């Protein structure tokens, strides 16, 4: 796993910055978002420093897919309904340049309700 010493999420992966981990496997961690936008707002963070979606590859996507499914099953989110979101690029709202997946549940994201 290649990490970047200057990256916030790499520091969280290494435990240098505290976080509330709700799930972890060998390829990713899942933490509570510090500024939740829904009753459940988690971040799945691959344990490799890749800046964004377009820098990722199939292997990372498969690992992320597995981590997302495991998290959803472990927390029973399929029954509650959920949204998965990836922001790619500052113009789209990406603020942390380490690829991550938002997992949101408990709020209906419809037009005018963001
Ligand atoms: P994005 O805007 O898509 O890059 O998402 C970054 C997310 O990271 C935001 O939802 C922030 O609230 C969240 N965040 C930033 N710092 C922390 C932290 N120390 N612990 C947990 N979540 C964080």
Q: What is this entry, summarized?
A:
With 114 residues, the chain is α+β, with helices and mostly antiparallel strands. It has helices at residues 8-14, 58-75, 77-80; strands at residues 21-24, 28-32, 40-46, 83-85, 101-105.
Any overview of this molecule?
This protein is α+β, with helices and mostly antiparallel strands. A five-stranded antiparallel sheet has the order 1-2-3-5-4, covered by helices on one side. A hairpin with a 7-residue loop joins strand 2 and strand 3. The radius of gyration is 14 Å and the shape is globular. The termini are far apart. The model has no long low-confidence stretch (mean pLDDT 96). It binds adenosine monophosphate. Adenosine monophosphate binds next to loops.
Strand arrangement within the widest β-sheet reads 1-2-3-5-4
- The helix fraction, in percent, is 25-40%
- List unreliable stretches of 5+ residues: none
Major beta sheet summary: 5 strands, antiparallel
Name the ligand types.
Answer: adenosine monophosphate
N-to-C CA distance = 35 Å
Give the overall shape, derived from the CA principal axes: globular
Work out the helix count. Answer: 3
Helix and strand run: HEEEHHEE
Mean pLDDT: 96
Could you tell me the number of beta strands?
5
Percent of sequence in beta strands: 15-25%
Which structural class is indicated by helix and strand composition? Answer: alpha+beta
**Alpha carbon gyration radius:** 14 Å
């Amino acid at each position: 796993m290649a990490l970047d010493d200057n990256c916030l999420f790499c520091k969280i992966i290494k435990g240098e910055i505290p976080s509330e981990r709700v799930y972890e496997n060998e390829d990713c961690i899942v933490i509570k978002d510090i500024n939740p936008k829904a009753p459940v707002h988690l971040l799945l963070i691959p344990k490799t420093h890749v800046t964004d979606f377009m820098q990722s590859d199939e292997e990372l996507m498969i690992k992320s897919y597995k981590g997302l499914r495991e998290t959803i099953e472990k927390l029973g989110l399929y029954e509650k309904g959920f949204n998965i979101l990836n922001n790619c690029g500052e113009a789209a709202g990406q603020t942390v340049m380490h690829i991550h997946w938002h997992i949101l549940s408990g709020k209906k994201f419809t037009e005018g309700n963001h």
